[in-house]
Specification:
Shape: elongated
Number of strands: 0
Order of helices and strands: HHH
Radius of gyration: 18 Å
Helix content: 25-40%
Protein backbone atom coordinates (compact mmCIF):
# COMPACT_ATOMS: atom_id res chain seq x y z
CA UNK A 1 0.00 0.00 0.00
CA UNK A 2 1.17 3.53 -0.81
CA UNK A 3 0.34 6.70 1.09
CA UNK A 4 0.62 9.82 -1.07
CA UNK A 5 0.52 13.40 0.18
CA UNK A 6 -0.38 16.05 -2.41
CA UNK A 7 -0.46 19.83 -1.95
CA UNK A 8 -2.59 21.71 -4.45
CA UNK A 9 -2.58 25.50 -4.74
CA UNK A 10 -6.29 25.90 -5.45
CA UNK A 11 -9.16 27.80 -3.83
CA UNK A 12 -11.22 26.02 -1.18
CA UNK A 13 -14.24 26.07 -3.51
CA UNK A 14 -12.41 23.61 -5.81
CA UNK A 15 -11.58 21.10 -3.04
CA UNK A 16 -14.28 18.59 -3.98
CA UNK A 17 -13.39 18.64 -7.67
CA UNK A 18 -9.67 18.27 -7.02
CA UNK A 19 -10.29 15.39 -4.59
CA UNK A 20 -12.54 13.53 -7.02
CA UNK A 21 -10.22 14.09 -9.99
CA UNK A 22 -7.18 12.78 -8.10
CA UNK A 23 -9.11 9.76 -6.80
CA UNK A 24 -10.35 8.86 -10.30
CA UNK A 25 -6.83 9.18 -11.71
CA UNK A 26 -5.29 7.01 -8.99
CA UNK A 27 -7.95 4.28 -9.38
CA UNK A 28 -6.27 3.35 -12.66
CA UNK A 29 -3.49 1.80 -10.60
CA UNK A 30 -5.65 0.08 -7.97
CA UNK A 31 -8.21 0.80 -5.29
CA UNK A 32 -7.83 4.43 -4.14
CA UNK A 33 -9.48 6.25 -1.24
CA UNK A 34 -9.11 9.85 -0.13
CA UNK A 35 -8.46 9.83 3.62
CA UNK A 36 -8.65 13.55 4.37
CA UNK A 37 -8.75 16.97 2.79
CA UNK A 38 -7.52 19.95 4.82
CA UNK A 39 -7.06 23.64 4.15
CA UNK A 40 -3.77 25.24 5.15
CA UNK A 41 -3.82 28.99 5.65
CA UNK A 42 -0.66 30.72 4.41
CA UNK A 43 1.52 32.46 6.95
CA UNK A 44 0.68 36.13 7.38
CA UNK A 45 4.27 37.16 6.61
CA UNK A 46 4.26 35.23 3.32
CA UNK A 47 1.11 37.05 2.22
CA UNK A 48 2.67 40.44 2.86
CA UNK A 49 5.94 39.86 0.95
CA UNK A 50 6.27 39.74 -2.81
CA UNK A 51 7.12 36.17 -3.73
CA UNK A 52 6.95 34.88 -0.15
CA UNK A 53 10.32 34.27 1.45
CA UNK A 54 11.90 32.94 -1.74
CA UNK A 55 14.61 35.59 -2.01
CA UNK A 56 15.83 35.20 1.55
CA UNK A 57 16.05 31.41 1.37
CA UNK A 58 17.57 30.98 -2.08
CA UNK A 59 19.93 33.87 -2.63
CA UNK A 60 23.56 32.98 -3.22
CA UNK A 61 25.05 36.47 -3.38
CA UNK A 62 24.54 39.38 -1.00
CA UNK A 63 22.45 42.29 -2.26
CA UNK A 64 24.37 45.29 -3.54
CA UNK A 65 23.03 48.80 -3.08
CA UNK A 66 23.30 51.01 -6.09
Amino acid sequence: MLSITVRVNAPLANALGVKEDLAMYLERYGDARVVSVTEEAPNQMDQMTIGGNYYGEHRKMPRVRR
